[in-house]
């Protein structure tokens, strides 16, 4: 991060390539930056700024920018002598000192605070330091007094009087997780002082001379002291190391190390030492101590001798669980590899916690390597640690590919080929993600080429749509067989293209077209009409009009719609449908008349039922008229008429009808229908006219 | 557990409730979505605020969601694919499948089929061999394979419990579905509609004033014995059964007190249960008989049989005509017309026009659209004199190039397919030649399900393919059925004929199947062990 005077924050990657920038707001722009602090909390990286107007502005996460302007400190006329950002109970607050007063700024208010156990004569504050975990706070005053306590300002841990009154250049905490010993490191130009609460190791204070200008970096488990020529790490010696390396230590680990050394010298003393440990039944502990201590060593030789001691001790124990030893060997191998000067990541064992090993979040070493573009080493580490392909190698390759697509000097073909060559079908690789990256870099063609390697067509579609390759997206969606996906693309296309082009695109994709038709059928019936119009599908247009005629309430509307259908059917050269529709119009009109004349519902009856009802009501003339007008086949008419007459019980009329001309359906139906109505008498009348072969 | 207040059926009535959360468990259908939309909008109008959740089964379909744009509603899926209806029947219960796929060309259910296969696969281990015919079958199979590859499930190395799977589209064999069913279960379905393995017997069956819902499966001891029987032997069986039952009841006489106690405590309940079922099925039989004798059922069967055999087409056509003219039943008339069309490769133009005209006159002009749809799926077509074979072929080749554009292509815009029924029937011997009477009580082949007149094509194909362990020797039939056959064996599964699983065959009908086919396959299963 690089913060400019006007409050612009520039973000670069590790390779000093500019990523993006953001502004800290108008207030900062107007009053300029007086001082800025970058801090890290569990919410990400934050930036706090003290402006020329002595006001604070901050954001807790630069990736999710929310600017907060802190309340004003009343009566503040000059810049605070020192200030720090605290994170307590998920709230980020600012602590500042003006002379002898301490102020706490939270979101809404400014309050004066006094640290407990601080005497009033200690003078004005010159420097303050917050521990890495935001739990502890140290204050330095102009009398050389150091107050150390909890950051909540509720408890004092200890205090000191250093004889140095000049303002220190830097003050940082030096402590180890889960250790109760806490110390503060204070640096002046050529002097370093360590002050702490430990009873044993740091009696009061320790002073060191600095040969060069140095800078202190507080870390999780210690302090890095960086100067132009050296890089030192100051930390609390872990207990295991102390036990082993303390002068004249009789701890089991120390004895075991000694035993192993004697064993190598082929001296019988080895047995003595070993016996001593075994007598106390402390051998397992000795082995554990050696393993643990090996982790804290930076020199491979020391690591080796400790591990050798552990391995030696292990031989004399039944069933010592091997995991801790194996894991330590693995961890050290990885740590040594990345500590190599060519890689240059001098992580301590604590900073490389084993529980991180199997996760590839940014804090573990393969990911750190990935960010540094040290892909081969990262892959080798993953393989060495036997991480599953999906968790390890695939991810690294994906990162590599994402980096590869940014190389502008190579052609699209070359890059795509190189990526495919290396990635192949490695499980867990998402070509669409890589393609998305290529598209972000403005390489659309490359993105399309990469998408070709994506086996899941469903994954290709969203990116293709984003790249405005809608037609390609459409065919991919269809290929996937996922209708929902096709709908997504179709509706996207609909909004994106003009109507004509949209229809044309659909014409070439029958599946999409049929899906869109389904959609229109239920949702946009007018569009459906346009669709049919477009490809001159008169048959479907006819059907469309027939369909809509049924939603018309008034007869005129229905007739109108049917008339339209009729025209379309003619255009479609479907004479049958045209004739049928014509008949339907005729029937509708007739039915309306009938309804008016007889005051009975006739509408929507079929022709058969209309005629049948007319006969039932005794309107024989009207029935006859319909029979002729609609050219009802004779047979049909006869069937219809006799069953209607029988239903009416009009046997007289039936007899008349039977004699009107020769029955086209014979006379058996007359008999049957009479029998059905339990009229034996009538049945007998027709029996003689039934043909002899049917009479049986 | 979740404090569900009350369960409502999704129907036309609005659900009145005071609770502030609604959860809908529905099929992705536009109609049900409209119903939900009505409820949501009504609540909005009256100023009620509720939370709504819609759970779609088996999967969300964006069409339905899109069509009823609803704010403040969350959706979820319940991947419920298979409903076991009986010991040997599993159903997806998707009645819309046929219309959506075969008529509208909507491929959404293929995904469901593939997922259902995946589910079966995960439950019963890999299928040893997969056969199939039809485009839908092929697409479903391919999609399923893709899903399997993606999921990388560890079904590998598992002992397969289902040896063979046979996927079959409905459209190569419409004939079977169009024939009148003759086995008891089929007739019950035709008459009363079996829904999800249960049937509502109306008052005329129960001989009381209530209707009763009866589960029809292998658990019903009476039903399981007659379900697969030809109807003609069912009545005899039932009367024999009732005599036996009576005899068992009669044993009561001459019992001493102790025996009587035994009888009441142990046998009586079972007997009563059986008695109840027996009277129900006798009632159902009577009801079926009444219907079937009334409408010249015998004549209709005769017409059907001559259509299948291809004799006396003229006579059958006039029978159909009379059927229409007398308004016997709109659906039966259509069924006969379709059967005529498919067996004859389309109607001759004169008949095509006149039958349709008379149908419209009898049953109403709205059926114009019905005819259009039937033509589109090739169920009711016109013999085309003008359209030569080359014209058909050029259409086919056009379709093929379309297909090259993507794995899945348009299915609906197809030409009215030629059914080639006669040629297939001859090739596979679907019309059994029997001397003398066909013994329906002791059937020799699957034709018994249609009174010995016709072996269901679908079942015959399954039989042939399984017998030959592939399509070899059936090339001509495949060509006549428009191809798209496949037969793939899973190399990971050892082909061990000794395994029990080799005897388990899963037949998947895409687009529905009839109880006659189930009966025929059960017969086949029994014959071949």
From TrEMBL, chain A:
Annotated localization: Lysosome membrane
Cellular component GO terms, alphabetical: endosome membrane; HOPS complex; lysosomal membrane
Membrane topology category: Peripheral membrane protein
Transmembrane segments: none
Record-annotated Vps16 N-terminal domain positions: 1-327
One MF term in the entry's GO annotations: actin binding
GO biological process: endosomal transport; intracellular protein transport; vacuole fusion, non-autophagic
Pfam families linked to this entry: Vps16_C, Vps16_N
Domain Vps16 C-terminal, residue spans: 429-696
Residue ranges that the Swiss-Prot or TrEMBL entry lists as coiled coil: 256-283
Keywords: Coiled coil
Quaternary structure, from the entry: Core component of at least two putative endosomal tethering complexes, the homotypic fusion and vacuole protein sorting (HOPS) complex and the class C core vacuole/endosome tethering (CORVET) complex. Their common core is composed of the class C Vps proteins VPS11, VPS16, VPS18 and VPS33A, which in HOPS further associates with VPS39 and VPS41 and in CORVET with VPS8 and TGFBRAP1. Interacts with RAB5C. Interacts with STX17, MON1B. Associates with adapter protein complex 3 (AP-3) and clathrin:AP-3 complexes.
Entries under PANTHER family matching the protein: VACUOLAR PROTEIN SORTING VPS16 (PTHR12811), VACUOLAR PROTEIN SORTING-ASSOCIATED PROTEIN 16 HOMOLOG (PTHR12811:SF0)
Family affiliation: Belongs to the VPS16 family.
Protein's recorded name: Vacuolar protein sorting-associated protein 16 homolog
Gene source species: Charadrius vociferus (Killdeer)
Automatic annotation (TrEMBL), chain B:
UniProt cross-references to Pfam families, sorted A to Z: Sec1
Topology versus the membrane: Peripheral membrane protein
Superkingdom in the source lineage: Eukaryota
GO CC entries: late endosome membrane; lysosomal membrane
Cell location: Late endosome membrane; Lysosome membrane
Coarse class of the protein's main subcellular location: membrane
Keyword Transport in record: yes
Keywords: Protein transport, Transport
Single GO BP term: protein transport
Family under the similarity heading: Belongs to the STXBP/unc-18/SEC1 family.
Name this polypeptide is given: Vacuolar protein sorting-associated protein 33B
Protein source organism: Charadrius vociferus (Killdeer)
Taxonomic path: Eukaryota, Metazoa, Chordata, Craniata, Vertebrata
């Amino acid at each position: 991060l690089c913060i400019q005077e006007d409050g612009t924050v520039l973000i670069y990657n590790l390779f000093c390539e500019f990523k993006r920038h953001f502004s800290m707001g108008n207030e900062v722009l107007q009053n300029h930056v007086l001082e800025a602090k970058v801090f890290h909390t569990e919410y990400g990286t934050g930036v706090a700024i003290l402006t020329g107007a002595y006001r604070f502005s901050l954001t807790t996460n630069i990736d999710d920018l929310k600017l907060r302007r802190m309340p004003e400190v009343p009566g503040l006329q000059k810049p605070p002598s020192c200030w720090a950002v605290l994170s307590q109970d998920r709230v980020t607050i600012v602590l500042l000192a003006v002379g002898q007063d301490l102020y706490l700024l939270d979101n809404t208010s400014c309050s004066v605070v006094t640290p407990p156990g601080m005497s009033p004569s200690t003078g004005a504050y010159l420097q303050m330091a917050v521990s890495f975990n935001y739990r502890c706070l140290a204050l330095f005053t102009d009398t050389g007094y150091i107050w150390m306590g909890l950051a909540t300002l509720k408890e004092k841990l200890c205090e000191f009087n250093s004889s140095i009154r000049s303002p220190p250049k830097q003050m940082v905490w030096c402590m180890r997780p889960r250790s109760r010993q806490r110390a503060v490191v204070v640096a002046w130009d050529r002097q370093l002082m360590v002050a702490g609460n430990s009873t044993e190791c740091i009696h009061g204070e320790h002073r060191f001379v600095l040969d060069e200008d140095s800078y202190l970096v507080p870390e999780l488990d210690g302090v890095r002291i960086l100067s132009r020529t050296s890089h030192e790490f100051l930390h609390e010696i872990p207990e295991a190391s102390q036990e082993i390396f303390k002068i004249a230590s009789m701890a089991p680990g120390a004895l075991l190390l000694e035993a192993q050394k004697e064993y190598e010298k082929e001296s019988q003393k080895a047995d003595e030492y070993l016996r001593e440990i075994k007598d106390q039944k402390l051998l397992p502990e000795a082995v554990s101590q050696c393993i643990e201590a090996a982790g804290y060593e930076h020199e491979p030789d020391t690591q080796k001798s400790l591990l050798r001691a552990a391995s030696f001790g292990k031989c004399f124990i039944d069933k010592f669980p091997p995991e801790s030893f194996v894991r330590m060997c693995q961890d050290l191998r990885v740590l040594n590899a990345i500590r190599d000067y060519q890689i240059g990541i001098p992580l301590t064992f604590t900073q490389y916690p084993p529980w991180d090993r199997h996760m590839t979040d940014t804090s573990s070493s393969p990911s750190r390597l990935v960010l540094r573009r040290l892909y081969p080493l990262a892959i080798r580490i993953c393989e060495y640690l036997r991480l599953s392909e999906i968790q390890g190698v695939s991810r690294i390759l994906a990162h590599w590919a994402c980096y590869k697509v940014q190389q502008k000097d190579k052609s699209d073909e070359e890059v795509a080929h190189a990526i495919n060559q290396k990635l192949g079908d490695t499980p867990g690789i998402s070509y669409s993600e890589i393609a998305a990256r290529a598209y972000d870099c403005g390489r659309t063609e490359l993105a399309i080429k990469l998408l070709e390697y994506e086996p899941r067509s469903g994954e290709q579609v969203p990116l293709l749509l984003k790249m405005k390759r809608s037609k390609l997206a459409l065919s991919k969606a269809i290929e996937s067989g996922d209708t929902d996906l096709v709908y997504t693309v179709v509706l996207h296309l609909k909004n994106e293209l003009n109507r004509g082009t949209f229809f044309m695109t659909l014409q070439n994709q029958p599946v999409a077209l049929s899906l869109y038709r389904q959609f229109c059928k239920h949702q946009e019936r007018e569009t459906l009409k346009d669709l049919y119009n477009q490809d001159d599908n008169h048959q479907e247009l006819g059907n469309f009009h027939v369909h809509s005629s049924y939603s018309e309430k008034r007869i005129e509307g229905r007739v109108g719609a049917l008339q339209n259908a009729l025209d379309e059917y003619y255009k479609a050269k479907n004479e049958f449908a045209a004739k049928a529709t014509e008949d339907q119009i005729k029937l509708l009109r007739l039915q309306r008349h009938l309804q008016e004349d007889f005051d009975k519902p006739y509408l929507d009856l079929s022709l058969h039922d209309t005629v049948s009802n007319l006969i039932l009501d005794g309107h024989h003339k009207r029935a006859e008229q319909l029979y002729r007008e609609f050219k009802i086949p004779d047979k049909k008419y006869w069937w219809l008429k006799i069953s209607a007459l029988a239903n009416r019980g009009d046997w007289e009329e039936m007899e008349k009808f039977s004699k009107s001309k020769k029955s086209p359906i014979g006379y058996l139906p007359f008999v049957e229908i009479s029998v059905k109505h339990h009229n034996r008498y009538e049945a007998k009348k027709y029996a003689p006219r039934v043909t002899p072969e049917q009479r049986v | 557990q979740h404090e569900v207040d009350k369960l409502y059926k999704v129907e036309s009535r609005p659900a009145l409730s005071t609770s502030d959360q609604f959860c809908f468990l529905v099929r992705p259908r536009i109609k049900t979505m409209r119903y939900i939309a009505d409820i949501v909008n009504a609540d909005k109008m009256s100023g009620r605020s509720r939370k709504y959740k819609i759970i779609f089964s088996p999967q969300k379909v964006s069409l339905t969601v899109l069509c009823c744009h609803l704010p403040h509603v969350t959706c979820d899926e319940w991947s419920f694919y298979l409903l076991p209806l009986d010991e040997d029947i599993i159903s997806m219960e998707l009645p819309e499948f046929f219309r959506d796929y075969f008529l509208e060309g909507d491929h959404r259910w293929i995904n469901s089929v593939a997922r259902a296969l995946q589910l079966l696969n995960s439950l019963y281990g890999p299928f040893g061999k997969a056969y199939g015919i039809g485009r839908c079958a092929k697409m479903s199979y391919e999609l399923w394979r893709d899903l399997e590859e993606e999921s990388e499930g560890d079904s590998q190395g598992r002992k397969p419990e289902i040896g063979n799977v046979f996927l079959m589209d409905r459209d190569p064999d419409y004939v079977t579905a169009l024939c009148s069913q003759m086995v008891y279960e089929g007739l019950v379905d035709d008459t009363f509609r079996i829904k999800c393995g249960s049937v509502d017997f109306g008052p005329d069956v129960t001989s009381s004033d209530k209707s009763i819902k009866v589960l029809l499966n292998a658990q019903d001891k009476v039903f399981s014995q007659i379900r697969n029987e030809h109807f003609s032997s069912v009545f005899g069986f039932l009367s024999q059964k009732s005599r036996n039952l009576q005899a068992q009841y009669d044993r009561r006489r001459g019992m001493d007190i102790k025996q009587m106690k035994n009888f009441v405590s142990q046998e009586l309940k079972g007997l009563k249960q059986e008695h109840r079922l027996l009277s129900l099925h006798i009632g159902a039989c009577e009801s079926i008989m009444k219907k079937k004798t009334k409408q010249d059922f015998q004549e209709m069967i005769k017409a059907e049989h001559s259509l299948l055999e291809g004799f006396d087409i003229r006579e059958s056509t006039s029978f159909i005509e009379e059927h229409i003219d007398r308004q016997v039943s709109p659906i039966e008339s259509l069924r006969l017309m379709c059967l005529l069309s498919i067996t004859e490769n389309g109607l001759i133009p004169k008949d095509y026009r006149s039958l349709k005209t008379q149908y419209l006159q009898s049953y109403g002009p709205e059926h114009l659209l019905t005819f259009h749809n039937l033509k589109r799926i090739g169920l009711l077509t016109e013999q085309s004199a003008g359209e030569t074979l080359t014209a058909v072929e050029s259409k086919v080749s056009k379709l093929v190039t379309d297909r090259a554009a993507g794995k899945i292509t348009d299915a609906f815009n197809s030409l009215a397919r030629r059914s080639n029924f006669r040629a297939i029937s001859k090739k596979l011997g679907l019309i059994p030649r029997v001397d003398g009477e066909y013994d329906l009580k002791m059937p020799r082949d699957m034709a018994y399900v249609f009174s010995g007149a016709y072996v269901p094509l679908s079942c015959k194909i399954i039989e042939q393919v399984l017998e030959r362990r592939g399509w070899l020797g059936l090339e001509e039939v495949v060509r006549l059925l428009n191809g798209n056959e496949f037969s793939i064996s899973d190399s990971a599964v050892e082909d061990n004929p000794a395994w029990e699983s080799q005897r388990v065959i899963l037949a998947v009908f895409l687009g529905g199947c009839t109880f006659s086919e189930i009966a025929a396959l059960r017969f086949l299963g029994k014959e071949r062990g």
